[in-house]
UniProtKB/TrEMBL annotation:
One of its GO terms (biological process) is microtubule-based movement. This is Dynein heavy chain coiled coil stalk domain-containing protein. PANTHER family: DYNEIN HEAVY CHAIN, DYNEINS HEAVY CHAIN. The chain crosses the membrane at residues 113-129. Keywords: Coiled coil, Membrane, Transmembrane, Transmembrane helix. It holds the Pfam family MT. Residues 45-89 form a coiled coil. One of its GO terms (cellular component) is dynein complex. Residues 53-111 form the Dynein heavy chain coiled coil stalk domain.
Length: 130
């Protein structure tokens, strides 16, 4: 191949002398290098485009997740307020039930005392009758 290139270069010089025009020659290895570079450029461009798409999808997922977290935080704040109100109502109800239980216990004790008095009265009456 080197002989052919040298012959072409000689003819190019003659062409320049006679016609006053340039003729450039490029070695085949250089053309192959350009071809290889083009293929690598296309391959790497596709890889980068894929990575860019993957990154965009990941960022979109992060934005979506952040929005969902914000929504859940807002719902949690509302539910905490509702829970506090319901806990206060439950505490009040427990106090009322405690007071009512105390009243019922007192009335039950009074009822037992009255029942005992009635039995004693009946027993005395029965004993006096006999």
């Amino acid at each position: 191949m080197a002989h052919v290139h040298s012959q072409v270069n000689q003819m190019s010089r003659l062409y320049l002398l006679y016609e006053r025009r340039y003729n450039y020659t490029t070695p085949k290895s250089f053309l192959e290098q350009i071809s290889l570079y083009s293929k690598l450029l296309i391959k790497k461009s596709k890889e980068l485009a894929g990575k860019i798409d993957r990154l965009k999808n990941g960022l979109e997922k992060l934005r979506s997740t952040a929005q969902q977290v914000d929504d859940l935080k807002a719902k949690l704040a509302i539910q905490e307020v509702e829970l506090k109100i319901k806990n206060e109502a439950a505490d009040n109800l427990i106090k009322i039930v405690g007071v009512e239980t105390e009243k019922v216990s007192t009335e039950k004790a009074m009822g037992r005392y009255n029942l005992l008095l009635v039995f004693l009265f009946l027993f005395r009456t029965f004993v006096y009758v006999i």
